[in-house]
């Protein structure tokens, strides 16, 4: 715990940590302590309580009284995470802005390593890390690695929020210069949309270390609003691909692309005819991406693995996903047979 008199820099902190919380009482103390115990201590900790109805408010007040780096704001009515994040950005005084969620755990050296990476390149707008995924009881489930190869990262970012939201640290001056904020029309998947904006205005760096424990549980927003998030992600991916296609002068049918994005993200049923069209649309776009960027064999394999993984998952999660339907989809991916076998086995293992 700290005392304001110990830290004269609190008037001009190097980092502003922004955390929006709502009914996070079960995990909140661990999340806050993981920030307060960072080896890099020059930060302000902006916490916005979005009208919690559990004991979160009492927990927050206790920490705020004990550590003057914490700036606590409490909403009278629930406004949603996106608006709270934008408010946090608007009042942040730090040169860099770090995100944190009320149910995750940051490793002690996270800030120290991220700020070093950002200071080494003034054109870097965002720095993320790898994550260890844990359950409600802190048990490790898996590990997530953001692609390090620039082309693999670019390909992935067209379809996914490639960097985990609570791992990021951003360059505040570049956000201000380009008037970048979260889209308040989005209640979920706001990170995917935000990263899509940011990448046009600066470099993105990923530290290949597991510097955050990302918690998965039934109260996650992504779990509670799964269908809404999937539809928003489909729309963002569609816009990303359209922008990229326009930039490289690649003609792609808008209607078919929208159907294909919905196929990838949504669980709705699809006919065999449309399944064929959707797979061909993605594979043709993938091949153009590989050709345009003159990727080597290793890079090509990485891109194809990602594509096949997404397509297998899409086929597997469709409502009419019978064995025959899965086999039919696999046959349509015959040109990627070796990758299919490995990725399909890996996918089933994760499901089990």
Strand and helix layout:
Elements: E1 15-21, H1 28-36, E2 43-49, H2 56-66, E3 70-74, H3 81-91, E4 96-99, E5 105-106, H4 110-119, E6 124-134, E7 140-144, H5 150-159, E8 169-171, H6 172-177, H7 190-198, E9 203-215, H8 221-224, H9 226-247, H10 254-265, H11 272-293, H12 297-316, H13 323-332, H14 337-351
Parallel strand pairs: 1-2, 1-4, 2-3, 6-9
Antiparallel strand pairs: 4-8, 5-9, 6-7, 6-8
CATH fold-type name of the largest domain = Spore Coat Polysaccharide Biosynthesis Protein SpsA, Chain A
The name of the CATH superfamily of the largest domain reads Spore Coat Polysaccharide Biosynthesis Protein SpsA, Chain A
pLDDT averaged residue by residue? 89
State the shape. globular
Biggest sheet architecture: 9 strands, mixed
Secondary-structure element order, N to C: EHEHEHEEHEEHEHHEHHHHHHH
Q: What is the count of structural domains? A: 2
Helical element count? Answer: 14
Task: Please bin the fraction of helical residues.
Answer: 40-55%
Distance between the termini: 43 Å
Instruction: Please give the number of β-strands.
Output: 9
- Spans of at least 5 consecutive residues whose pLDDT stays below 50 are 1-6
Summing up helix and strand content along with how strands pair, one would put the structural category as: alpha/beta
| CATH architecture descriptor text of the largest domain | Alpha-Beta Complex
Using only CA atoms, what is the Rg? Answer: 21 Å
CATH class of the largest domain: Alpha Beta
Strand content: 15-25%
């Amino acid at each position: 715990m700290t005392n304001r008199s110990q830290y004269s820099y609190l008037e001009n902190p190097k980092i502003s940590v922004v955390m929006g919380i709502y009914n996070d009482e079960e995990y909140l103390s661990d999340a806050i302590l993981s920030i307060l115990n960072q080896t890099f201590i020059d930060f302000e900790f902006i916490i916005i309580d979005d009208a919690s109805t559990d004991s979160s408010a009492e927990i927050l007040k206790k920490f705020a009284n004990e550590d003057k780096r914490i700036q606590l704001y409490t909403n009278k009515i629930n406004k949603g995470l996106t608006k709270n994040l934008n408010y946090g950005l608007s009042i942040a005084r730090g040169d860099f802005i770090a995100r944190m969620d009320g149910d995750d755990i940051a490793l002690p050296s996270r800030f120290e390593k991220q700020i070093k990476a950002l200071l080494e390149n003034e054109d870097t707008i965002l720095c993320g890390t790898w994550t260890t995924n844990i359950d409600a009881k802190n048990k490790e489930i898996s590990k997530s690695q953001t692609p390090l190869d620039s082309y693999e990262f670019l390909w992935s970012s067209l379809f996914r929020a490639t960097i985990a939201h609570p791992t990021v640290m951003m360059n505040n001056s570049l956000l201000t210069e380009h008037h970048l904020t979260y889209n308040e029309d989005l209640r979920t998947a706001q990170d995917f949309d935000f990263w899509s904006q940011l990448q046009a205005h600066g470099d993105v760096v990923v530290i290949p270390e597991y510097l955050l424990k990302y918690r998965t549980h039934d109260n996650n927003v992504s779990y509670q609003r799964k269908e809404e998030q999937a539809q928003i992600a489909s729309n963002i991916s569609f816009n990303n691909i359209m922008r990229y296609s326009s930039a490289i002068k690649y003609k792609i049918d808008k209607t078919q692309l929208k159907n294909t994005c919905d196929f990838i993200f949504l669980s709705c049923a699809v006919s065999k005819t449309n399944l064929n069209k959707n797979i061909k649309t993605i594979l043709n776009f993938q091949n153009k991406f590989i050709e345009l960027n003159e990727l080597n064999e290793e890079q090509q394999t990485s891109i194809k693995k990602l594509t096949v993984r997404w397509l297998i998952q899409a086929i597997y999660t469709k409502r009419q996903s019978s064995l025959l339907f899965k086999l039919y989809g696999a046959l349509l991916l015959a040109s990627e047979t070796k990758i299919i076998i490995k990725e399909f086995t890996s996918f089933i293992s994760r499901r089990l």
